């Protein structure tokens, strides 16, 4: 039998691989579709899939309080912001660059822990956060020809993802992971449908439906694994496995799109990952000493 930490590490790794695989094939859809059109179509497939699994697991019809639904709405809103900013950035940036910026999430969670949750964060973790954010600056390079507004959208996606993860931690155990994933998928799909209403749609025969299907399956898996991960194992042990997503993004970006990260991106990625791991190490050490 796996330990809670082992399950959490596996779920985190699988979730990152699912989301990155989704990101790669979403870039194919962006050739013929707008970002919100692609989000809407994948949602039309992801929602029934998650609903069917939830029904099979007796997690579709659950009795929840108004407070539970408020938390679910807040989490879904954060997911809408994250998905919109991330995919808009992804449509115009190499996947490795966007994925590297997203690795700043563990560092942003340190800020939330200190500022919002009132946790005691020592100077070493604050220094790790500052240096890690410098790694983000190295990747987006403001003031140079390599800089564009899409890099800022990727940074905004980190902020929304931080909010999403924080809220997910406070989801009561009585809220099934499948129901939470379904709720989020519905809200994201409705939002993207509204945003794409006025867009000029291509002929339906020209849409790459196998790719849409793959995106629907992988995003459904990602939503589910995301919630399950937050309920398994110690965060300090599980969180580092999110960096598998960066490795997967670099590999797929190079193999499929020929997007080789430049030295600035690699340097920034190294800074972000190193400081993120160091901050997590300090957090685990402090918790063990108390």
Could you explain how this protein is built, in words?
The chain has 290 residues and is mainly α. The radius of gyration is 19 Å and the shape is globular. It has one domain. It is built from twelve helices and no strands. The model has no long low-confidence stretch (mean pLDDT 86).
C-alpha Rg (nearest Å): 19 Å
**Strand count, sense and closure of the main sheet?**
none
Distance between the termini: 29 Å
Class by helix and strand content?
mainly alpha
| SSE sequence, one letter per element | HHHHHHHHHHHH
Number of domains: 1
What's the pLDDT, averaged over the residues?
Answer: 86
Helix content: over 70%
Number of helical elements? 12
Number of strands: 0
Shape: globular
| Low-pLDDT residue spans | none
Strand share of the residues?
A: under 5%
SSE arrangement:
Blueprint: H1 4-29, H2 35-56, H3 66-90, H4 95-102, H5 105-115, H6 123-140, H7 149-169, H8 177-195, H9 209-229, H10 235-238, H11 244-257, H12 263-289
Helix pairs in contact: 1-9, 1-11, 2-8, 2-9, 3-7, 3-8, 4-11, 4-12, 5-6, 5-7, 5-12, 6-12, 8-9
Descriptive tags:
12 helices; mainly alpha; single chain; 290 residues; 0% strand
């Amino acid at each position: 039998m796996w330990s809670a930490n082992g399950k959490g590490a596996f779920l985190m790794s699988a979730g990152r691989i699912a989301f990155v695989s989704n990101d790669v094939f979403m870039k194919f859809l962006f050739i013929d579709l707008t970002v919100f059109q692609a989000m809407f179509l994948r949602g039309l497939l992801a929602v029934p899939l998650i609903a069917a699994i939830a029904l099979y697991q007796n997690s579709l019809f659950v009795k929840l309080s108004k407070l539970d639904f408020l938390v679910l709405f807040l989490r879904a809103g954060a997911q809408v912001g994250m998905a919109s900013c991330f995919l808009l950035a992804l449509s115009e940036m190499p996947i490795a660059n966007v994925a590297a910026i997203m690795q700043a999430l563990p560092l942003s969670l340190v800020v939330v822990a200190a500022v919002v949750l009132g946790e005691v964060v020592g100077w070493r973790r604050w220094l790790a956060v500052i240096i890690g954010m410098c790694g983000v600056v190295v990747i987006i390079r403001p003031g140079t020809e390599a800089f564009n507004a899409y890099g800022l959208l990727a940074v905004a996606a980190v902020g929304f993802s931080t909010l999403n993860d924080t809220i997910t931690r406070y989801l009561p155990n009585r809220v099934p992971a499948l129901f939470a994933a379904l709720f989020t998928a519905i809200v994201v799909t409705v939002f993207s449908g509204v945003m794409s209403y006025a867009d000029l749609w291509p002929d339906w025969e020209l849409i790459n439906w196998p790719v849409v299907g793959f995106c629907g399956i992988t995003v459904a898996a990602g939503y589910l694994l995301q919630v399950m991960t937050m309920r398994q194992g110690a965060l300090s042990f599980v969180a580092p496995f999110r960096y598998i997503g960066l490795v997967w993004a670099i590999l797929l970006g190079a193999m499929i799109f020929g997007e080789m990260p430049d030295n600035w991106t690699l340097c920034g990625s190294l800074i972000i990952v190193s400081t993120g791991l160091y901050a997590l190490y300090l957090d685990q050490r402090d918790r063990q000493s108390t």
